[in-house]
Amino acid sequence: MMQVRRAPTYSGFCGGVKRAWNRAVKASQTGEETIYLSGKLIHNTPAMRELASLGVRELSETDIAEGNLEGRTIIMRAHGEGPVAFADAEARGFKVIDATCPIVTAVQKIAVQLENDGYQVVIFGHRNHPEARATVAYTDHGFIIETLEEAQALPHYEKLASIAQTTVLQADYVDLVEVLRTKADHYEDRGRICGWTLHAQDEAVALASSVEMMVVVGGRDSSNTIQLVRVSEPHCPTLHIETVDELTVEMFAGRSVVGLAAGASTRESDIAAVISFLEAIPAAVPSLVEA
User: Fold this and answer.
1) Is residue 247 located within the same domain as residue 275?
2) Domain end marker among 174, 193, 212
C-alpha cells in the first residue's frame, strides 16, 4: 500500500478559518432563510458549496437591488472588509457578524497606526486579494505592491513602512524588505505573516524533501495553498488539487511514498478522502511503472 505522510500539525482549517466557519454554521441554524456573506467566506470552492447548501451565500447585486435587507444577517468574510463595507451594511439595516481573522484585524490596526505616525504605508500582497484590499482600505494613502520590481521603482520617502498580506511567502517578503530599506530616510518593517502560514510552509518543505511526490489539497484561489505548492515544487513533483476527484491512480505510477499538505481553508473531509484514495494504491505497482 502507498505510504502517505501528512504534514504533522499545520494542514486543514487554521484558527481564523475555524472561527469564521463556526460563526457561519451557527448563523445558518437561527432559522433565517438566507444568511448573506460579504464575499467568499474562505477561498475554498467545495467548502463554499457546503455553506450554500446550509443557506449561507454571497450577497449579490440582485439582493441589493431588491432591498428588504433590514434585519437580515451578513457575515463579513475571514479576509476582512474595509470600513466602508461595514458602514454600508449597517446603513442597509443588516445584523453584522464580523468573521475577520483576528490576525488580519491586527494587521489593519498596524496600518492605521503607521499612517497616523506619518509613514507612507506599503502593503505587500496580491492587488486583487480581498485581504490586501481590505487592509489598504483602512488607510488614506496606503497602496499595494506585488513584486520586487514595483518596490525598486518606488521614489524616495522620508518615512516608509511595510506590512504584508498574511498569506504571502516569507522569502518573497524578506527580499522586498531589503529593497524598501533603500527607499526611505526612516523605514519601518511591520510585516506580519501569519504564524500558521509560516509553519505550514516549513512543514511542507520538510515533507517534500523526504517523499517522492507531494499532493497539496486546497482552493485554487487560496493564497496560502498556492504558497505550499511553490515551496514544495523545488523538492519533488507536486500536485495541487481541490478534491480527490481530480486524482487518478496513474498519477502515482512508480511511487511508494507520497506527502500531503493542505491549505488553511481545506475541510478535513477533503483531506481524509485524499488520504484514503492514496492509501488504497499499491506501492509502485509494476504494471503502472511499465505503463
Assistant:
1) yes
2) 193
Domain that holds residue 39: 15-100
Task: Give the Cβ contact number of residue 289 at 10 Å.
Answer: 10
Q: What is the DSSP string of 3-60?
A: EEEE-SSS-S--HHHHHHHHHHHHHHTSS-S-EEESS-SSS-HHHHHHHHHTTEEE--
The whole-number pLDDT of residue 67 equals 82
Q: Model confidence over 118-137: pLDDT tens digits?
A: 999 999 999 999 999 999 99
Task: Label the pairing between strands 157-164 and 213-217.
Answer: unpaired
Grid cell in block for residue 193:
505573516
Structural domains of the chain, count: 3
Q: What is the pLDDT of residue 284?
A: 63
* pLDDT 10s digits, 76-107: 999 999 999 999 999 999 999 999 999 999 99
* SS3 of residue 106 by DSSP: helix
Which pTM does this prediction carry? 0.90
| DSSP 8-state class, residue 245 | G
Catalytic status, residue 290:
no
Q: Residue 169 is part of a domain; what is its CATH number? A: 3.40.1010.20
Please identify which of the residues 131, 146, 203, 242 carries the catalytic annotation. Answer: 131
**What angle in degrees, to the nearest 10, is found between the helix axes of 45-53 and 15-28?**
20
